[in-house]
Amino acid sequence: MSISRRSFLQILGLASAGAALPTTAQAAHGEFAGYPDSFAVLHDQTLCVGCRSCEAACNEVNNLPAPDRPFTDLTVLDEMRRTSAGAYTVVNRYRDADEPGGPIFRKLQCNHCLEPACASACFVGAFTKTPEGAVIYNPSVCVGCRYCIVACPFNVPAYQYHNAANPVVTKCTMCYPRVKEGLLPGCVEACPMEALSFGKRRDLLHLARERILRHPDRYVDHIYGELEMGGTSWLYITGVRPEKVGLREDLGETPAPEFTSGALGAVPMVVGLWPVLLTGLYAINKRREAVQKRNLTEAVEQAIGETQAAADRKAAQTAEKFKKDKEAAVEKAIQKALKEAEAARPKPPEEDA
Amino acid sequence: MSTDTGTVTTPEAAPLPADGGSGTPPRRGILTPFNVIAGLIILLGAWLTWQRFTGGLGAISHLSNNQPWGVWIGFDLLTGVALAAGGYTTAAAVYLFGQKQYHAAVRPAVLTGFLGYALVVFALLYDVGRPLRLPYPFVISPGVTSVMFEVGACVALYLTVLFLEFSPAPLEWLGWTRLRNFMIKLTIPLTIFGVVLSTLHQSSLGAMFLITPAKLHPLWYSNYLPVFFFVSSIAAGMAMVIFEGTLSHSIFRRQVDPAHEEEHHAVIFGFAKATSLVLMGYFGIKVVGVAVSNNWHLLGTRYGLWFLLEMLGFVALPAFLFGVGVREKKLGLIRFTALLTVLGIVLNRLNVAIICFNYRLPAAQRYVPSWKEIGLSVFIVTVGLVAFRFIVTRMPILHDDPAYKDAH
Amino acid sequence: MAVEKADEKRQVRWLGIVALLVVAAVLGLGFLILDARAQRKPAEPRTDLISLEYPVTPGHPERAPSVFLHQPHADLDTTSILAGEGCRSCHPAREDGALSFRFMRLNDELPRPEMVDLYHDRCIGCHTGPAAQAGRRGPDGCGQCHVRRPEVAAAQANVVMDLGLHARHVKAFDGKCEPCHHVFDEATQKLVYMKGKESSCRDCHGATVVDARPTLRTACHAACVNCHLEHPHSGPTSCVGCHDLARFLAYKRPDPVPRLERGQPDVVLVHAAVEDIPQMEQPSVPFDHRSHERDVNTCRVCHHEKLLACRECHTLAGEERGGHVPLAVAYHAQGVDHSCVGCHETRKAAVDCAGCHSFLPHFALAPVFCQRCHSGPPPAELAATGGTMPSAAAYLGPRSLAPLTFTGDQFPDSVTIDRLADKYAPAVFPHRKVVDKLRAGIAASPLATHFHAEDDLACTGCHHHSPVGARPPACSNCHGQPFQPVNMNAPGLYGAFHQQCLGCHERMHKPTDCTYCHAARSDQAVARADQP
C-alpha cells in the first residue's frame, strides 16, 4: 500500500506541530535564586522546647478540625509524626529526655522550596511559587493524582484519603493570606521562644550566619535550606547534625525540576525525528518490495521469453525435419513409382541380333 | 492465503473458521466456569466501586501520605501500559519494517493494546481523587513542566490512535465497508503516530520517577529510567503477543482460520528471536546504568540481591531461554519464557513504584496493598478479559473476514 | 509427534529446574554472606594490643598487621617453656640491667628482612617448639597472626603524668629529681642531670625517633616500667596498668596535691622581655602563679613542654622559637586552653556562669576588662627600675565581692511582668533572690570575683545592651515587635522574655516548666515537652 501525498503531508504537519509544542521544560539549572524580596522563615532548632504552640496556632488560623488529642498533650511526642490531612505542621522529639544532652525538638512543615518539586510535578499546575515566597495550592483544579506527594523529597504534602466528594492535597501555606496583609504566619506569632523568625530570605540568611558566628559552640555550621534542593524558603539552624533532627543530608543541591527537564526536553526531538525515521524506513521497505516485485516480473518474463524461443526453435526444427522427411518420402515415392513404372513397362520383343 | 487483488472472492476459495465466518459464536450454556467466576468478580468490583466513590480512596486502599501510589498505579497503570506495548511493536514490525509474515499478529496485538490502554484509563478513574477532572490538564490548566502531563497527553492520543487502528475490525463486523476502507488507508500514518506516541509515553512513565532520587533505591533509579522503561516495553509487548497469542489460539481456536494458525508459528519464533535480542540489550544497558552511578557495592545488600534476581532470573534467563527455544524449535519453552518475561516486567514496574520506593522508610511504615485494592485490579483485568472475549468471538481478529480479503 | 512433544516437555522442565536452582543458589549464597557480615561483632578494645606492621608503600603490598596481645604472653609461666624468666624471656637486658622493651633485641637497627626473620623465627619457634611441648601450641599459620579483620582493636589511652602522680613520685624519691629528669650533654655525649633544667619528657621525646632520641613510648617504658620492675609493687608493669584510663585515673593521688617546687614565684609581674619593655603599650599584669597552679593538672598546659617562662620564647613581634606567636596573642588567644583568655573562656561555660555568659557572643573581649588584668606598673615605671622588678603582690586585685550599692527602690525585691499576660497569669519575678543567688555563685569563684568585683557587672547579665545604673531601661523599651529589619537580632518582647529567662534557667539547670513562672489561666495554656 503506498502512502498518499496527503497522508505524508499530514505526518509532516504533526511532526512540526509537535516540535513547536510549548513544552517549556524549565531549564532550571539552579539558576533561580528566588524572587528578590521573597519572605522566608528561619527555624532555630536550639530554641525549640516542644510546646506545640505552633501546631495549635496553625490549627486555629487555618480552621482545621480539632485533633484527637489536644495540643497540650505532650505524650504525642513519644512517636515520630509526619504532616497529615488535618495537621499542616508537627513538632517531633528527636532525642529523649534521659539521653545525654537532653531532649531536642524540631518543627516540620512544607519547606516552600525555591523550585518546588510539587509545582514541577503537578500536571494541572495546581501549585504556584509566589513572589512572597510561599508555595500555595489551588484546590479548584486539582485532579487528585498525588504525583506531588510522590515528588516531594521532604514527604510533606498529605491527602484526604477519606474524603469521597472533595478530596484535596493539604500542606502548610506559610499563611499566604496573612502574609499578604502584613501579618505574621500563625506559627511564627505563637512561638514563645521565638524559635521561628520571619523576614526576607536574604536577611534571614544573614541572621543565621551571624548567630552561628556568635555562638559557634551552640550551632552546627550549616544553614539547612540555603542550598538543599536548590534552596528553600524555610531555613534551619540546628544544634546537632541536621540528619539527627530528621533533615536529610543526602538530598543534594539540584532543584527538583532539573531532574526531569532533560527527559522533557527530549520530547520535541522525538516528535520531530521519529516520523522522519519511520517514514523513511517505510519508504525504504516499500522501495525494496517494489524492486523485488519488478525483478520477479522481469525474471518471469524472461523465463517465458526463453521458453517461448526454445519452443519456437524446436517447432522450426521439427517443421524443417518434417519438410525434409516429406521431401525424402516424396522422392522415395517418385523413385519407387519410377521403378515400378519401369518394371511395369512391357518389355519390347527380344531381337536377334 | 490471501491475495492482494483487492477483489471479493467467492467463499469457497478460502477455508472457513469453524463458526462459519458468520461473526457470531456458537450457542453454549451461560453458566460456564469462566462466566461464573468473572461474574462474581464483577459483582465484587461493583461493590468496591460503590465503596470507593462513597468512602474515598481510604475506604478500600492502604494508600497513605507516605505511599500515595500503590497497586493501581504500579500494576494497572505502569504494567498495563508496558504489556499493551505489543500494539505498536507489532504494527511497526509489519507495516514499517515490512515483516509481512507477522501480519496475523497485528489485529490481536492492536486489540490487546487498545483494551490495555482502555483499562488503564478505567483504572485511573478509581485511583485519581477527582476523576471527573481528568480532562482539566488539557482544557483548563496545563501543567507543562510535568512529565505526567506529557504522559497523559500521549496516552489520550494513543488510545485514540489504537481505537482508530482497531476500528476496521468492528466496522467489518458491522459491514460498513466505505468507512472501513477509509480507516484501512490510515494504517501507515496511524502506525507512525503510534510509534512516536508510544516512545514518548513509555519512556515518560519511567521519567516520572526521575524526580524521586531521594525515595527510589539507587539500583532502580537512574538518569536512564526513560530509556529503561522504553526498551523493556518493547520486550514486554512482544512477549505479551506470544503469550496472549498462545492463549487465544487455544481458547478461541474456533475463531482461528488456518492461515492465521500457520502464520502464528512464524510469529512465535520470529518474536521470540526479537524479544531475546531486546532483552539482551536491556540487560546490557541496565549494567551500564549500575556502572555509571558506580553502585556495584549495593549489589551486596538485600536490595542488591533482589535486583540480581530481577536481572538474572527475569531478564537474562528469558533472553537465553528464548534463544534455546528458537534454535531447538521448542514452542513450549518459548511460551514459558514469554510468561517469564511478562512476569519480569510486572516485577520491574512494581519494584519501581512500590517495592523499592520509599526504601528508606522503616519496615513498619512500608506499604502493603489491601485485599480490596487487589480485588479491584482483578476486577479491572476481568472486565478486560470479558471485553476481549466478546470482541474476539465476534469480530475478525483471529481470522480474516471473507468479505475483506485485502485486510493487511 | 507425541514422543517429540513429550521429549520437549521434559527438556523444558529440566532446563527450568536447573535455571531456578542456579538463581536460588546465587541468592542463597548472597544471603549467607550478608548474614555473616551482619553477625560480626564490633571489635573488642584491648589495651595490650600491639600491632606489628610495616608501613605500606605503593608497589609493595604487605600482609595485614599482626595482632599481638601482650597480656596473655606476659601472664605465661615461662619457666617451663623458655630459658629466661618473666619479662626476660622476650626482653633482653642492657649493660646497666635495664630491660629493652623491644622484642628480643636492644634497638631497632635491623634491616627489614632480618627484622621479619627475627619475629617469624622467635615467635613461631616458640609457638611450635617449647610452648607446643608444654601443651600450649600457638599460632603458626600466616593468617593466624596476620589477621585481616581482627576481633580486637587497640585501645591504649594516652596517659599524662599529672601533678598528683608526680607528687607521689617525688615523695617516693625523697624529693630528688635525678632518677627521671636528664638532659643530653653534647660535650660528653651522655645523659646527665642538670638542676634547674628539669623539663617535661615530651620536651625531647616525641612521636618519632630524632637524632637517636628514642620516642616517648620507648623512653617512658624504659624508664617507668624498668623502675617498677626493679622495685616490686611500686607501680604498674603491665599495659593495662597505665593505658586503661579508668584504672589510671583511679590511682590515689594526694589531696590537696602538694606544690611542685621548681623555684617558681608565688606572684609574678607579667611583662615582655626586658629589652622590649620600652615597646610595651599596656601596664604589666600581676599574676598569682601559686593559685593558678591549682587549676591545671600539669605545668605543660601553660608552659608547653619546655617549662620555660613565656617571654623566653614569645617576643612582642613573634619569632620562630615561639612558633611565630607574638606575646600578646600567647596571652589573649581564644579557643585554646594555654592562654589566659582562652582558659578563662572555658571556665565561663560552668553551670554557675553559663546563665549570663552563654548569651554573650563568642570572641567578645570588651575593652573595659583590660584593666582587670593590666593593673600592674606601667612600662615606663618598669623601664625605670632598670631590671629589678617591683613586688607584684601589691598590685593583685580584690579577693572578695564588693557589696551591692543599689538599695531600696533602686533594687526591687520582686517585679511583676504582666505586659503580655494572656493564656497565663502575670509572672512574679523574685528579683532580689535571683541576684543574691548569682552573687553567691560569683563569690564562690576566685576568677569570677576578680572580674566581677564591682557590683554593676552582674546586672548586665539581664539588663544588657544598656548603661549600668540604678534605673536600667525596661525590656519593652527595645523589645517590641519581632523581626524588625533594622534589628533582626533583637527578639520581640514575647520571645525576649522567654529566651532570656528560659535560656538562663536551662543552662543553670533551674526549673523550666511554664507554670513555674506563671500560673496557667485556661486549659488552652500549652506546656513544655522537655519536662519530666
Task: Explain what the structure shows.
- The complex is a heterotrimer of chains A (353), B (408) and C (532).
- By secondary structure, chain A is mostly helical.
- Chain A folds into 2 domains: 26-254, 2-Layer Sandwich (Alpha-Beta Plaits), CATH 3.30.70.20; 261-343.
- Chain A has 8 helices and 9 strands.
- Chain A has helices spanning 5-19, 53-61, 117-121, 147-151, 176-180, 186-190, 201-214, 256-344, and strands at residues 39-44, 90-95, 104-108, 127-129, 135-137, 158-159, 169-170, 196-200, 234-237.
- Chain A is rod-shaped, with a radius of gyration of 47 Å.
- The relative contact order of chain A is 0.15.
- Chain B is mainly alpha-helical and 408 residues long.
- In chain B, helix 1 crosses helix 15 (371-392) and helix 3 packs parallel to helix 15 (371-392).
- Mean pLDDT of chain B is 90; it is low at 1-14.
- Helix content of chain C is 37%, strand content 6%.
- Chain C has helices at residues 2-39, 70-75, 112-128, 130-133, 142-145, 163-172, 216-230, 239-243, 245-250, 289-293, 300-303, 310-313, 327-332, 340-347, 351-357, 370-373, 379-385, 431-443, 446-451, 456-459, 475-478, 493-507, 514-517, and strands spanning 44-46, 49-52, 66-69, 152-154, 183-185, 190-192, 267-270, 285-288, 415-417, 427-429.
- A two-stranded parallel sheet of chain C has the order 1-4.
- In chain C, helix 15 runs antiparallel to helix 22 (493-507).
- The longest helix of chain C is centred in the first third of the chain and has 38 residues, at 2-39.
- Chain C is flat.
- The N and C termini of chain C lie far apart (84 Å).
- At the A-B interface, helix 1, helix 3, helix 4, strand 6 and helix 8 of A face helix 1, helix 2, helix 4, helix 7 and helix 10 of B.
